Amino acid sequence: MAALKPTVWPEGTQWNVATAKDAITCKPVWELSKPFIYSNRTAIDIGTRFGGFAHFLTKEFEHVHCFDIKRKKQFARNSIKKKVTHYTGPLGGKFKAWNIDEWRSGVGNNWQYDFKPEWLEETYNIDDHNFKEVDYIKIDTDGSEDKIVPGCELTIKEYKPLVVIEGFKPSQLEAIEILK
What is the pTM of this model? Predict the structure, then answer.
């Protein structure tokens, strides 16, 4: 299968490393995983959203490959441009997903979403990208982890990276079992 092509960012996109938008949730997970990192060559952030986790990865790793189903302009504000490659598109097998049109700020920390269900016919795998020297993989896709992990099998077997995965939903727990 073909690999995703890197995301093309609009001319004039402002890149900087501001305080990560979702650092409240990302920073504690990042801090917990840091002691288990054995090398800082390449990281993969699957489900990068606004780049909150990528914010920490781009400070630590030589290069970070970030994947999300949609390009979000806030991502650039949390990442170091020369150290990141962003990919826009679905990973995993054919599945029904809730396409998030936009995240809108609500009152306080309450977020509102615009969801539209759609079938994602053309999907991609991490293994199709032939990334080298992968030391870290973060997967947080809110329910499609079990579809994504099998597409990382060759990369995980070859480089034995630290894999950080959310584990609350049944599909996430299934992904953890697949990893075992």
Answer: 0.84
